[in-house]
Amino acid sequence: MLIDLHSHTWPRSHDSVLNPDDLIVRAKAAGLDAIVFTEHDTVWDYKSIEELRAKHNFLVLAGVEISTDDGHILTFGIDKYVFGMHRSKELASYVEKVDGAMVAAHPYRRQMPWFSRNDDEYKAALEKASRNPAYQYVRGLEELNGRGSDKENEFSRRLADMMQLPGTGGTDSHAISDVGKCATYFEADIRDERELIEAIKSGRFYAVDMRSGKPVPARALPSEA
Predict the structure, then answer these.
(1) Residue 222 falls within a domain, yes or no?
(2) CATH assignment of the domain containing 183
(3) Which of 135, 151, 140 is nearest to 206 (CA)?
(4) Has residue 218 been placed in a domain?
(5) pLDDT tens for each residue of 3-43
């Protein structure tokens, strides 16, 4: 299945100009099998998500992008924002209690060096990023962000390789032009949020650049136990 794990709609995300209905229509046209609404620090209610699914006959799932002191975290499984989640350790504790999952969004932000004089400096930046306190809790890194440049996504990809974490793809859509650029391929059939969480925990997924038409995994999927 091809699922966009990272998208924003207005008015739940103040910086988006995307209407939820328009986002879904464009996602279907782009060939996606599902889309996840991950508003900034705001959780969709289940009834609204169910209504959108029925209206469009399309799998719409709910997550949330939590802003933490250690960066933005795509979080799946929580049903409300709790004060203290801006600290990644407390966010992870709450996610664990509800048996959820976390993925680091656009890890290049505030970690990638814009200017490095040599490869040693670049590698030092990767090493420093790998020690981000939040990353001990995540199940993957967003190695392909639809709004990120090739240079930025390359940093995320190299960081995922260094940390031996699987990489996801998400458009980080805020406008119609963002939709359909990339996605995450899952081997499992996913029908709801719980199955999405289990699929993320399995590690059996990879980022897909839909612009290139080459859905090739960046690294081998883990073998079955």
Answers:
(1) no
(2) 3.20.20.140
(3) 140
(4) no
(5) 999 999 999 999 999 999 999 999 999 999 999 999 999 99
Give the domain extent around 76. Answer: 2-209
Letter string b/e over residues 104-120, b meaning 16 or more CB atoms within 10 A of that residue's CB: bbbbbeebbeeeeeeee
Q: What whole-number distance in Å separates Cα of residue 220 and Cα of residue 90?
A: 32
Q: Is the dihedral of CA 211, 212, 214, 218 positive or negative?
A: negative
- Enter the tokens of residue 158: 């190299």
Query: Is residue 219 predicted with pLDDT exceeding 70?
Result: no
The answer to whether residue 80 is domain-embedded is yes
What pLDDT score was predicted for residue 115?
A: 75
pLDDT tens-digit profile of 181-202? Answer: 999 999 999 999 999 999 999 9
Q: What is the pLDDT of residue 118?
A: 83
Q: Report residue 194 as tokens.
A: 């719980």
Q: Residue 216: inside a domain, yes or no?
A: no
Q: What are phi and psi of 15, to 5 degrees?
A: -95, 5
Q: Report the domain count for the chain.
A: 1
> Would you call 53 exposed, middle or buried from its count of C-beta atoms within 10 A (0-12, 13-18, 19+)?
middle
